[in-house]
Amino acid sequence: MSTIINLPTSASFLVTEDCNLRCTYCFEKHKQNHMTREVARKGLEYLCESAIKNGDDHFHAMLFGGEPLLNPDIVEEILSYGLELGKKYSLIFTASMVTNATILTDDVKRIMKTYQGPAQLSVQLSVDGVKDVHDAYRVTRAGEGSFDVIAKNIPQWQELFADNPRMLNIHGCSNKKTLPRLYENYLFFREEWGFERIWFMPIHSEDWDENDVGIYEEQLGKIADYILERSKREGNIAEVDNYAPIDRCLKPDGFPGAPCGAGKNFVTITASGELYPCHQIYFNDPEKTTKIGDIWAGIDEPRRAIFVNYDNEDMTCAKDNPECDAYGCYRCIAEHWQRKGSIISTIRGPRCKMSQVERKIQLKIREELMQVGLLNQKCTDTRKGNNPNNPDCLCDSRGGAAPENITNPVSKCGCGNSEESDNDVIAFALKTVLNKLDTIEKEQALILKKLL
Questions:
Q1: Cα(392)–Cα(3) distance, rounded to whole angstroms?
Q2: Other CB atoms closer than 10 Å to residue 348's CB: what's the count?
């Protein structure tokens, strides 16, 4: 169990909670909330102060929404003021943005050009694949496809990042209908559009089955073969590093402290200035049960404790299958909380098997790279996850939906004995309480020492 008490220094800023698209699988509620200059600046000051208190040398802002470019003035305010604070306190400020790529005005271009270098700005474009795949799900408010608008903007986005194309990546969501075309969509992004950094996320809320697992293995296998062939031909591993989750084969085997940094080093700052562990949890928590503070009063540590104090050994899948080689297994605590009522109750079944497929292919690629001398016997890349905004987490995709009724904070694991899973959750809660008491005792001892 983790005892980390550092404050978060990275956050997704909900620049606006509105969007100009209505993607059919989106977990957001499209509220008419827009971040103000005051909230943006105070949010950055909170992260900056946290970095100073932690003894860290950097802080990070991820521009998120809704669609952040609906509020470009605040996008620029965050980038500008973040750099100002960094300079003032000798800290490194970096930023990233997730956008649906439909908005690219002259003002947006100016902002991208101005801050790309100073803030090390990276941008993720959310596109699902070829035209008919994308237009089936990423639609406008009027229900029309958005692909043509995006396709027109793509060359301009690429021109903006021509000096550093790896800072521009593309991300797509896959469901049961589009999964059989995963390889086709990948090739389209890689060869037709010429993107280097690409990743796809199976939608959280999809009802995956055993047939989908087989399709995923076939499609991901084709992508792996393409990547291997290109790596051998070009004599380097850049192509492997470009595609998530295959890039995990470049990392040493071993679990990070937890599958996600939400609530630990990463939080979400809402348009009104509230703090949540992550944006996906926030958008599916109208009762605000997971709110952990605000940018004015700071973190409410007792409310944050459950997110800080868990780690891999507390996850129910680790307890049920101690011999499982699940390194790099995709586990989203927001998805667990939405569907099972507990962040540590891992979703199993086909979704788990899809992660096992990823692991199988990662090991295959690693072995072949070693055989041809492109990878050392010992992997030294220790980066976690694939999201530069939150290095402990794989995702910032928008796939997923909350179940209609979550009333029980204690979850039953669907794959093992439910009584055992309940006991695991209770045991974890008890450990969290005991850990908090231990922290209080240590703080009291320090106070008494100073007084005496």
A1: 16
A2: 17
How far apart CA 24 and CA 143 sit, in angstroms, is 10
At residue 65's C-alpha, the angle toward residues 64 and 67, to 5°, is 105
Q: Under a CB-based contact definition with an 8 Å cutoff, are residues 342 and 410 in contact?
A: yes
Helix or strand (DSSP H, E) at 59: strand 58-64
Instruction: Report residue 338 as tokens.
Output: 């939405």
pLDDT at residue number 394: 43
pTM (2 d.p.) = 0.81
Greatest C-alpha distance within the chain:
73
Please indicate whether residue 92 or residue 417 has the higher confidence score (pLDDT). Answer: 92
Q: Which long-range contacts (CB under 8 A, 24 or more apart) does 218-227 make?
A: 219/179, 219/180, 219/181, 219/182, 219/183, 220/182, 220/246, 220/357, 220/358, 220/361, 221/361, 222/183, 223/182, 223/183, 223/186, 224/361, 224/364, 224/365, 226/183, 226/186, 226/187, 226/190, 227/365
* 208 Cβ neighbours under 8 A, 6+ residues apart: 176, 202, 349, 350, 351, 354
Q: For residue 65, give the amino acid letter.
A: G
Domain spans in the chain, listed from the N-terminal domain onward:
204-256+321-381, 420-452
| Dist CA 115 CA 404 (whole Å) | 41
Q: Provide the pLDDT for residue 231.
A: 95
Contact criterion met (CB below 8 Å) for 9 and 61? no
DSSP string, 406-446: ---SS---SSS-HHHHHHHHHHHHHHHHHHHHHHHHHHHHH
Q: How far apart are CA 439 and CA 435, in angstroms?
A: 6
pLDDT of 381 over the 90 cut: no
Q: Which amino acid is at 72?
A: P
Percentage of the chain beyond pLDDT 90 is 55
- pLDDT 10s digits, 302-325: 999 888 887 766 666 655 565 565
Q: Which of 43-57, 122-136, 172-186, 236-250 has the lowest average pLDDT?
A: 236-250
What are the tokens at 277?
A: 């562990």
